[in-house]
Fold these 2 entries.
Entry 1:
Amino acid sequence: MVLAKCVRFTASAAGKFGQRDLLGNFRNLTTATFTSTSQSSSTSAPSHEQQRRQHASYGKMSGWQIHAYGVPQEEIQFSDGIKMPILRSPTQLLVKVKASSVNPIDVAMINGYGASVLNAMRCKDGGIEFPLVLGRDFSGEIVQKGLGISSRELEVGDEVWGVVPVHLQGCHADYVVVEKYCLFKKPSNLSKIDASAILYAGLTAWSGLYITGHLGDLLGAISPVGGGAGKKVLVLGAAGGVGTLAVQMLLAEGVEVFATCAPDAMQMIHNLGVKYVLDYTDPAHVQNVASVGRFDIVLDCAGKGTDYANEIPWLFDQYITFNSPVLKNIDADGFAAGMYQNAVNLVRNNAASLSTRQGLVKWGYFVPVPQGIAYLQRLAEKDKLLPVVEKVFPFANTPEAYERVSQKHLRGKVVIDFE
Ligand SMILES: NC(=O)C1=CN([C@@H]2O[C@H](COP(=O)(O)OP(=O)(O)OC[C@H]3O[C@@H](n4cnc5c(N)ncnc54)[C@H](OP(=O)(O)O)[C@@H]3O)[C@@H](O)[C@H]2O)C=CC1
């Protein structure tokens, strides 16, 4: 079975609070808060859970924020005085975060990626640009729910997993408010760590394959026999967060999967169940892939981008990349000129690709919709989807987690453990 072979690089629950300088700062701050109210604070450092309860009673929480764009090491800052988010509609819920992954987009957003569009959307929804909490996917527990949510749907105390749309305040803080369409009960067979590492990357892979790529219909894609028999998909960058989930989704559908990765990751991808794994650092892989014939989809999870589709001699019906230039062009040139650049880029690449190999070049995106979460939920519950977790960092060491993601060459996901 695929999941039995799944690779866990480091499942360390990482150190306890108090082991690092950073944590010393953290403890000092919170001990000061505690001395007037907590007997135990004088003898031992309070647990993060105790701190959470204490802060919450003041309407505050702790978390990691940025106050300006820049480099992660300088901008990501701890605060235990963040105002607790409050429910603003009957369909929202307040979730106590237990674990959350760090995605490349968190690092990119610190660098200012998408600032123009995302900030405009944030402000339109009544938000502010800074301070900004990052973090897009999480597992946790519901602590409050809006009046528009029945107990049949979700209840206070439920263990859940969810995502936060990219323009909203994120979940690298003790509590996060989310709309109910972004929140499902956590599959009981997933740990809080595994559950926190699937949804952002998984919804990206799902939307690339099903919304952009039309691999099957959105909800009916999973049939008892698999919907992908007879189809061939090449996954570039199979060792990363999106790639490791994409190959599992495809294998669960009965698709014939080909994958590229660096030599050190080849065994890991084989262990996920992929038969045809190619070393992209070997120049011969280009011809080897070409000799396979036509792919239904080439899925770029390696950041190769749109132009790459016309640099390689492979045959495909669709080349789908998650590295669209859309937000970058708007950041650089403003909305009108940026969108013009985007249209030119897409038309140019499609004209070239259609004329040489009758294949379409498309952009894929993370799309937070309940159909996608339901799809991932069903796969996870059938034991057909499990994230590869490269490393778990304790909440107090969140900057190290960001640092690891910014170094790239990821083998699966990086997770922050809040407990
Ligand atoms: N548009 C959207 O909404 C979204 C876009 N993305 C983008 O999708 C891409 C994948 O995301 P994610 O999986 O989270 O990123 P990761 O950083 O987790 O994974 C990227 C993987 O690709 C590998 N890689 C790099 N170059 C190549 C290559 N030439 N051939 C094969 N593998 C390669 C890397 O390892 P190594 O370098 O060691 O080979 C790494 O394992 C990223 O570029 C990300 O920015 C992701 C989510 C949403």
Entry 2:
Amino acid sequence: MFKRLCIIGTGLIGGSIARAARAQGLCQEIVAFGREKNQPNLQLAKDLGVIDQFYTHISAALDHADLVIIATPVGSMQSIFELIKPYWSATALYSDAGSTKASVVSAIEAVFGHVPNNFVPAHPIAGAERSGVDASNAELFKNRRLIITPLNNTDPQAVEKLTRFWEQIGSSVSEMSVEHHDTVLAATSHLPHILAFALVGLLGRKDEQREIFKYAAGGFKDFTRIASSDPTMWLDICLANKQDIIPLIRQFKAELSNIEQLLVDDQSQQLFDTFTYARNARQRFLDTLDD
Ligand SMILES: NC(=O)c1ccc[n+]([C@@H]2O[C@H](COP(=O)([O-])OP(=O)(O)OC[C@H]3O[C@@H](n4cnc5c(N)ncnc54)[C@H](O)[C@@H]3O)[C@@H](O)[C@H]2O)c1
Ligand SMILES: O=C(O)C(=O)C[C@]1(C(=O)O)C=C[C@@H](O)C=C1
């Protein structure tokens, strides 16, 4: 059990971590750090009982904290590490929830000159298209995955402690390298979000957009739900992981061109085979989820 959990970034993810930790009795006290301009949100978090107290001064927020979790957009992490550095405690456990891992590791390296061994990079593979503390919930991480990307010097005891924390709030924890994490997530999370943003953007610019959205049914909603996600968060993710995302966009364009050509050439059998291959691949993927 932790004495004091400090959340930096009390939005969907930070708020959900706080709620889940409280629900499972994993810490005695939960505090948050936020910027002056974010006071109304912090007050809301307190009123909702998500946190016990909030501070706009980092030293007060970190005082006696033995678990610190950073849940701000990945582009802001370096500025957060700069704020924390003067108060870094060798006995506390530090982690984050950022959707990209190489950028977070580079950010902390840029500030400290190395990655402190009590910082454990982590990423919950759970979320929503909504943001802010009012969208947070204690169940968000139940039966979902959490990836830890330890470095060579990361303290195994810190990894063990963080693993237990996430398991107690319902996640199944896996470990992988920072690079592998970013390559996998580019394919399974970053590219799909870009495709949803691109499709809705394309249709939104069409003259007949009212008609298009009026008659949109389940398929369109399923495919585009994630285009309602926060643009700041996704700008940060895309910039942070562009080296993995750009090759995938190129491969996707080739895939689309292939389908376009099959249509132009009336290649029904090949189109059928293309769709069947994808359908079977998705079924194999669903079967692995049941394992
Ligand atoms: N939303 C998801 O589905 C999801 C899933 C997994 C991981 N993540 C990651 O979790 C992190 C948070 O995402 P979220 O969805 O909770 O976003 P959010 O917008 O709901 O919350 C972010 C919070 O951080 C605060 N913040 C932003 N910049 C700050 C700064 N410089 N200093 C202090 N506070 C700051 C905001 O005011 C807000 O309260 C991101 O790194 C994101 O990549 C998101
Ligand atoms: O379910 C959603 O709305 C999400 O976008 C969640 C999702 C994802 O792509 O799966 C989004 C970003 C994260 O880093 C992790 C999870």
